[in-house]
Amino acid sequence: MTTSSHEKLSSNKNAWGVQCPGCGSFTVRIKEVEENQSCGFGDPTDLQVQVPVYACDACCFCFTDGTAEAIIETERRERIRNLLSPEAIKTIRTKLGLSQTEFAELTGFGTATLKRWESGGRRQNVSADNFLRLLGDDPTLLKKLRHLLRIRKS
Ligand SMILES: [Zn+2]
Known about the structure:
Distance between the termini: 59 Å
Order of helices and strands: HEEEHHHHHH
Radius of gyration: 23 Å
Shape: rod-shaped
Strand order of the largest sheet: 1-2-3
Strand content: 5-15%
Helix content: 40-55%
Structural class: alpha+beta
Oligomer: single chain
Bound molecules: zinc ion
Largest sheet: 3 strands, antiparallel
């Protein structure tokens, strides 16, 4: 039964005067829904935020206003803020003279992941971003990574 969710919705009154764009009714309720949004890099699971969605009692139409879009845009900017661009990651790797496979093996990131970062298909998280920056700033770290790889393989 969906009684509980209906009761939850009924407790919200349309105090904001929002009109349904579908039928013009003011019997509109608000509910928080989980939004899965693509960051524009091809991965729909990149962004998961709670946004307010209006639901019309009269025609069951669901719609958002600028609030939802603003929340999503803020979250999106927050996510990609200060992260290395796909081109920058590729530059770090090529400056080190490594193929994607070699770089992936040394860093432990995995070839598929690295390819997604370099193509922009997915963005790296902050810890990976930090690691990539350290590696780009100090190529001697490569020697240490090679050493670690030898130990792991032995
Ligand atoms: Zn409606």
